[in-house]
Design goal:
Number of domains: 2
Organism: Ruegeria denitrificans
Protein name: Molybdopterin biosynthesis protein MoeB
Helix content: 40-55%
Domain Rhodanese: 51-151
Largest sheet: 5 strands, parallel
Order of helices and strands: HEHEHEEHEHEHE
Number of strands: 7
Distance between the termini: 72 Å
Strand content: 5-15%
InterPro entries: Rhodanese-like_dom (IPR001763), Rhodanese-like_dom_sf (IPR036873)
CATH class of the largest domain: Alpha Beta
CATH superfamily of the largest domain: Rhodanese-like domain
Low-confidence stretches: none
Oligomer: single chain
Radius of gyration: 22 Å
């Protein structure tokens, strides 16, 4: 009898553990960042518009990433993890929340998420560069496209 009880307990524990793992998997799936439904630019268009001054291109990656690949020519490095990120971005735009802004990260995931957040915060002219610096399903990315980079490791103040 005790042997049957131990087997039943094992099955209950295994079933409970499987349910917990499945619950975490569903939770993680729901946390996948949404695709940005606003405007998008290719890396070539982002580069051309940033260099010509048509758009403020912001590289939202980390300082370590900037050091690794450089920052795209014409882009302003601004770490998205900064507590005052929105204020620093507003400073870059001269407090103009209607200014054209393009966001780029490594592979387009963080830039899509942050584009959504900035749009919700009242920035009205945000576009995403979904290829990122390293490429994604959207394209080869800035580096593989052979676009120029600056090896400036300092953040835009």
């Amino acid at each position: 009898m005790a042997d049957k009880t131990n087997r039943t307990r094992r099955w209950v524990l295994l079933g409970g553990g499987a349910a917990i793992v499945a619950g975490f998997a569903v939770r993680e799936y729901r946390l996948i960042p949404p695709v940005y439904t606003g405007g998008q630019l290719s890396v070539q268009d982002a580069h051309q518009q940033a260099v010509s001054g048509e758009i403020l291109l912001v590289d939202i990656r980390t300082p370590r990433e900037w050091q690794s690949t450089g920052v795209g020519q014409g882009a302003h490095p601004l770490d998205m993890r900064r507590d005052d990120f929105e204020q620093a971005l507003a400073d870059l735009t001269g407090k103009n929340r209607d200014a054209p802004i393009a966001l780029i990260c490594a592979r387009g995931v963080r830039s899509a998420r942050l584009s959504n957040r900035l749009t919700q915060a009242g920035f009205t002219n945000v576009v995403d560069v979904p290829e990122g610096m390293l490429g994604s399903a959207a394209g080869p990315g800035w580096v593989r496209a052979g676009l120029p980079v600056q090896h400036n490791t300092g953040e835009t103040e």
